[in-house]
Amino acid sequence: MTKEELKSYLEKTFPGMTQEENIDFPVLWVEKDQIFEVAKKLKEDEATKFDFLFDETAIDWQTHFEMVYHMTSTTYRHDLEIKVKLEDRDDAELPSVEPLWKAAEMYENEIYDLFGIRFSGHPHLRRIFMTNEWKGYPLRKDYQDDDVISL
Amino acid sequence: METKDIKHDEFVINVGPQHPSTHGVLRLELWLDGEDIIDSKPHLGYIHRGIEKMSEALGYKQFIYLTSRMDYLSAHISNQACSLAIEKGLQIEAPARAQVIRVLMAELTRLASHQLWWGALGLDLGAVSPFFYAFREREMILEIFEETCGSRLTMNYITPGGVVNDLHPDFVKKVKKLIEQLKGNLHEYYQLLTGNVILQARTRGVGKLTAEDAVSLGCTGPVARASGVKCDVRKLHPYDGYDKVEFEEVLNDKGDNFARYWLRIEEMKQSIYIIEQLIDNIPEGSYREKLKGVVKLPAGEYYQRVETARGELGVYIVSDGKKEPYRVRFRTPNFSNLNALRPMLKGAKIGDMVSMMATLDLIIPDIDR
């Protein structure tokens, strides 16, 4: 599907969800409780077949978090970006998409490690880069490392 | 991934972080039953430098040079990805000469990277001489890089708007000599390793990865193409004039170690073919678009995909209009290709682990960032 076709298809399939467009991809805003169902529909629907999650990451906007999913279809070669807003910065949690794309396991481990966002339904959430005892989440904007000495 | 309780006939061993076959500091935890591998789990972070966090403190022209330290064998291509993302934000395009130079450098990088992989694969499987044969041509490529870029590994040559300086006067002559020599010597690669009985026995039918697994696990590059998944970014989303050159996306549907081995050798031929088409047709003109001293991108987000020697590298820049990027994310190919190790190792013999690691061609600093 082309960008326009995909946009009108999404509007039909997920009425009421906000759509945007950036320079590269169409963007679909999803509520955090619905992310698993929406992702499942997008992956299993014959018309979209988003079977390849090529990136999953988060952005810290200081007032809230934003989850970003980049996916593509190896059949139709169209791309889509899904965004989820997480209001609660201290207790950020949302459903994992690991049952749909196995690649998400490591992406979500990384996000948990560096942002402190938890994923319910993830088989084994762990810190992959930092040690288990590490205090704080480095990619948050308010992260302070006590060991850093400013010159 | 669940941690298992250790049963009495099951034991756990650590491979790495200093194990030579991991090509860096990767630690694998293996659950074994005799010689059979029951499960595996990678432990990362031994060379985590926080490149994404560091990038948030540097300017747009500065942070791209940190990416040379991620996949150190594809330094040119990582720089190219960042430059393209920034150019996308500024809505400019590199001059025609710079684009051709970039493609030439990228393909030379791919050749050098595959040659190092080929030599190291020989070492891993117990053959020492391929290493010296591979380094004979690789040395020529690094010399070409050194003349034009000033360094051999972390080149920092490609910059937003073009390339840092013009080509060395001897560049064309030396590349032609390299191509001639490489084409004459490629049969040695077959004689030394490809036809070798030990290599065939250790790679054919070992380390199978199905196409469904490759897609679900997010594998890209030669690893996915050896399982029959079309994923060459140069074909799917052409950048820097890759749509103007002819080449073939090499595919194989076997998905085993030998398929990955064969695929990289064939890819080297395609790289040579691309270089041959361009080396006599480098356009004249400027090699760099003049940019302001401090680059500021309009607020928004920019995503750029490129094909490194190991797969798809995605650079995701979020800008809030200031002179530093608000957030930079690198979707590195090795991070996802590492996922393939677990299904491959399950049920395999521990002796095959080394050949699987060798054909996956993992670069650990690229995983850890």
Name the chain pair with the biggest interface and residue counts per chain: A-B, 31 and 38 residues
Element pattern of chain B in H and E: EEEHHHHHEEHHHHHHEEEHHHH
Question: Low-confidence segments of chain B, ≥5 residues, pLDDT <50?
Answer: none
Q: Report the CATH superfamily of chain B.
A: Cytochrome-c3 Hydrogenase, chain B
Spatial strand order of the main sheet of chain A? 1-2-5-4-3
* Mean pLDDT rating of chain A: 87
Oligomer: heterodimer
Examine the coordinates and then state which fold CATH places here, giving the name of the CATH topology of chain B.
Answer: Cytochrome-c3 Hydrogenase, chain B
Structural class by helix and strand composition of chain A: alpha/beta
Beta-strand portion of chain B reads: 5-15%
How would you spell out the order of helices and strands of chain A?
HEEHEEEEHE
CATH topology name of the domain at 3-87 in chain A, in short, is: Beta Polymerase, domain 2
In the CATH scheme, the class of chain B would be Mainly Alpha
Helix fraction bin of chain B? 40-55%
Distance between the termini of chain A: 55 Å
Overall, the morphology of chain A is elongated
Structural class of chain B: alpha+beta
Structure notes:
The complex is a heterodimer of chains A (151) and B (369). Chain A has 151 residues and is α/β, with parallel strands linked by helices. The longest helix of chain A is centred in the last third of the chain and has 12 residues, at 104-115. Chain A has a domain at 3-87: NADH:ubiquinone oxidoreductase Nqo5 subunit (Beta Polymerase, domain 2, 2-Layer Sandwich), CATH 3.30.460. Chain A has helices at residues 3-13, 35-44, 104-115; strands spanning 19-21, 26-30, 52-60, 65-72, 79-86, 93-95, 118-120. Chain B is α+β, with helices and mostly antiparallel strands. Chain B has one domain: Cytochrome-c3 Hydrogenase, chain B. Chain B is 45% helix and 13% strand. A three-stranded antiparallel β-sheet of chain B has the order 1-2-3. Chain B is globular and about 65 Å long. The two termini of chain B are 22 Å apart. The chains are: A alpha/beta (151), B alpha+beta (369). The A-B interface holds A 22-25, 51-55, 57, 59-60, 68, 70, 74, 77, 101-103, 105-106, 110, 114, 123-124, 128-131, 138-139 and B 1-3, 43-45, 48, 50, 52-53, 88, 213, 215-218, 220, 229-231, 236, 300-303, 312, 314, 316, 318, 326-327, 329, 331, 335-336, 338-339, 368.
